[in-house]
Design a protein that fits this description.
By secondary structure, the chain is mostly beta strands. It has 2 domains: 91 residues, Immunoglobulin-like; 124 residues, Sandwich (Immunoglobulin-like). Helix content is 2%, strand content 45%. The protein is built from 1 helix and 18 strands. The strands form 3 sheets. Strands 1, 2, 3, 4, 5, 6, 7 and 8 form an 8-stranded mixed sheet that branches. A 5-stranded mixed sheet has the order 9-16-15-12-13, with no helix packed on it. 30% of the residues are buried.
Length: 248
């Protein structure tokens, strides 16, 4: 997804596995050959964020992590079209196209600043279920599509990571796909889910959470469902509104 970059580049976060084959409007923003990338969280420098630049052949032209000041310097990038990917723990701060011109113009940027963790899902508890939404097995293809079967994803590994302190809380889903991480304190976390058994695979999934006692959500339902037609994003888990989760 191509981002629209303003002075502080307020981009909507997308998964790090977003597809770089999507169209890039007008080659994206212009950047100088030597420039600085800064990643922040809640206005403060974010250390350890991954910054990667790839060309249109998907070759990595630069890769590194931000320092204690949240910054990383990229130098000597030759003219061409590129993709910027800035992320931490599988959650994007930015994913957009840009270009370096043969002749640098006045509008070429020297510095790009991104905010990480702007849109977490608020929850009171890290408790819930992992399910695999599968087609029904009846004789009617249409009814099988509408009346799906929810199969628990058991033995999946879950890790709740604090992006600032590095603290990690772990859990494994049970035979009903249920999980619970009870001892984490309020704050911003990334929940990483991978593996498990339901008869089908899915890509490891990262969900940005705001663990807060004032949140209205108290149950996390993560559902595996095949990507829609034409989608270039792999199959992963999506967080459902627990109020709409079917009881079957």
């Amino acid at each position: 997804m191509c981002g629209v970059v303003s002075a502080l580049l307020p981009l909507v976060p997308v998964p790090t596995r977003a597809c770089s084959a999507v169209a890039c409007v007008d080659h994206g923003i212009e950047v100088r050959r030597d420039f600085v990338v800064v990643v922040k969280h809640q206005g403060r420098p974010l250390q350890g964020a991954s910054v990667k630049v790839t060309d249109y052949a998907a070759a990595v032209r630069f890769s590194g992590v931000t320092a204690s000041d949240g910054a990383i310097h990229i130098a000597g990038l030759p003219p061409g079209d590129y993709w910027m990917d800035a992320s931490l723990l599988g959650v994007n701060a930015a994913y957009h196209c840009f270009h370096v011109a043969e002749k640098t113009s006045w509008k070429a940027k020297r510095r790009m600043t991104y905010e990480w963790g702007n849109y977490p899902q608020a929850t009171r508890r890290v408790v819930g279920k992992l399910i695999d939404s599968q087609f029904g097995t009846g004789e009617s293809p249409l009814l099988n599509l509408v009346h799906r079967v929810n199969v628990p994803i058991r033995d999946a590994k879950l890790k709740l990571r604090d992006p600032l302190t590095g603290s990690v809380y772990s859990a494994v889903s049970d035979e009903n796909g249920a999980f619970a991480i009870e001892d984490a304190k309020p704050g911003i976390y990334v929940l990483h889910v991978e593996g498990g058994t339901s008869g089908r695979d899915y890509d490891g999934t990262d969900v940005l959470l705001d663990l807060s006692p004032s949140a209205t959500r108290d149950t996390l339902i993560l559902e595996r469902r095949d990507a829609g037609g034409g989608s270039c994003v792999g199959t992963s888990l999506r967080l459902l509104d627990s109020r709409t989760f079917p009881s079957r």
